[in-house]
Design brief:
This protein is an alpha/beta fold. It has a single domain, classed as Rossmann fold. The chain has ten helices and twelve strands. The structure holds adenosine-5'-triphosphate and magnesium ion.
C-alpha cells in the first residue's frame, strides 16, 4: 500500500543559530491508518506536525528532509497549493479551540466561511453544516449555528472545532493535544467521538499527546519521540505489551493503572535534554536504568524490523 504521508529525515532548526529542534525524524501514515506521536514536553511533536502544514513560526526553518503527501513533496509546493491542501485534504485541530475559532463571529458563519474559502460545491451549505454539528454530538445544531464561541463550554467548543475540521472531509486529521485542557469525562467523550468519525470516514489520523494512555484505544501505531528524535515505533500492541526502549517502558510505568496505588507510581527521574545539547550519545542515557558506557559515547541508530523500530543499544526483551 502506498503511504498517504511520508516524512523522511526531517530536521527543524532555529534559523539564526542553527540549533536543532527536530532531528532526522522519519515516519509514514498509510491510508486509513491512525498514528500516535507521544513524548514529553519539548520532544518536537508540535514542530513535526506544523512542518507538515508549512506553519512553523518565524525564526524556525526546515533544514533538511522531505514531506510527501500522496506522493507530492509538500516542501516544494507553492504557498497557494499548501493553502488548498490545508483544511481540505489535511485538517488540524489544536489544543485550544479559541486559536481556531473567531470570538466575534457566529459559529455558523465561521463554518460557512470554511466551505466558501475552498469553493466547496455543496448546494445546501447550511444542511451540511447542521449535519456536521449533529455528528459531533451537539444537541441543538440550529442554536449552535447562531451562537458565538464564548457561549459554549470548553468541551462544546472543542466539538465545534472538530466539526469544522471534518467539514471538508479531509483525508488526514492532525490533532495536537486537543483534549489536554478538558476534564477526564469530556476527554473520553471527545476521544470516542473522534474514533467513531475516523472509522466512518476511513480517515487517516496523526494524534499528538504526551499521554500514552490517550492513544491506547485510538490509534493503530505509536511513534515515541525523545529530545527531537524518534526513539521507538510499533503497533499499539507492541508498544503497550512489549516496549523495547527503556524510555517507552518508563512512560508506560508512569500511567495510572486501575488498582495501582497512585502514590507509588513509577516515573522517570530527571528531565530531557534540549535536542541541540545531545551530541553523539543516546539522549536518554543520563536517565536510563539500563545505560552502559557505550550509551554515553555513541548514538544508537533507529533500527527496524517488520512493524517496529527502536534506537537503543540494549533494547528490553531482546537477548544480548
Ligand atoms: N519558535 C520557537 N523558537 C525557539 N524554540 C522553539 C520554538 N518553538 C519550539 N521551540 C523549542 O523546540 C522544542 C520542541 O518544541 P515542540 O513544541 O515541538 O515540543 P512538543 O513535543 O510539542 O512539546 P509539548 O508537549 O510541550 O507541546 C522545544 O525545546 C521548544 O522549546
Ligand atoms: Mg506540543
Amino acid at each position: 500500500m502506498t503511504n498517504l504521508l511520508e516524512i523522511k529525515n526531517l530536521s527543524v532548526v532555529i534559523s539564526e543559530d542553527k540549533r536543532v529542534l527536530v532531528n532526522d525524524v522519519s515516519f509514514e501514515i498509510k491510508p486509513g491508518e491512525a498514528v500516535g506521536v507521544v513524548g514529553e514536553s519539548g520532544s518536537g511533536k508540535t514542530l513535526s506536525a506544523l512542518s507538515i502544514l508549512g506553519l512553523l513560526a518565524r525564526g524556525l526553518k526546515i533544514e533538511s528532509g522531505e514531506i510527501r503527501f500522496k506522493g507530492a513533496d509538500l516542501l516544494k509546493s507553492s504557498a497557494e497549493d499548501l493553502r488548498s491542501i490545508r483544511g481540505k485534504e489535511i485538517a488540524m485541530i489544536y489544543q485550544d479551540p479559541m486559536t481556531a475559532l473567531n470570538p466575534v463571529m457566529k459559529i455558523g458563519e465561521q463554518l460557512q466561511e470554511v466551505l466558501d474559502s475552498h469553493q466547496h460545491q455543496i448546494t445546501d451549505q447550511k444542511t451540511h453544516i447542521l449535519n456536521g454539528l449533529a455528528a459531533v454530538g451537539i444537541a441543538d445544531p440550529n442554536r449552535a449555528f447562531d451562537s458565538y464561541p464564548h457561549e459554549f463550554s470548553g468541551g462544546m467548543r472543542q466539538r465545534v472545532m472538530i466539526a469544522m475540521s471534518l467539514l471538508l472531509s479531509p483525508e488526514l486529521l492532525i490533532a495536537d493535544e486537543p483534549t489536554t485542557a478538558l476534564d477526564v469525562t469530556i476527554q473520553r467523550q471527545i476521544l470516542a467521538l473522534v474514533a467513531k468519525e475516523r472509522k466512518r470516514r476511513n480517515m487517516s489520523m496523526l494524534w499528538i499527546t504526551h499521554d500514552l494512555g490517550v492513544v491506547a484505544n485510538l490509534v493503530d501505531r505509536v511513534i515515541v519521540m525523545y529530545a527531537g528524535r524518534v526513539v521507538e515505533t510499533g503497533t499499539v500492541d507492541e508498544i503497550f505489551k512489549a516496549p523495547k526502549h527503556p524510555y517507552t517502558a518508563g512512560l508506560l510505568a508512569s500511567l495510572p493503572a486501575a488498582g495501582r496505588d497512585r502514590e507509588r507510581l513509577e516515573s522517570i527521574p530527571g528531565v530531557p535534554p534540549k535536542p541541540w545539547q545531545v551530541l553523539n550519545t543516546c539522549a536518554f542515557a543520563p536517565r536510563c536504568k539500563e545505560a552502559r558506557d557505550i550509551c554515553s559515547s555513541h548514538r544508537p541508530e533507529l533500527t527496524s524490523n517488520e512493524s517496529s523500530s527502536v534506537a537503543c543499544f540494549f533494547p528490553l526483551g531482546v537477548k544480548q
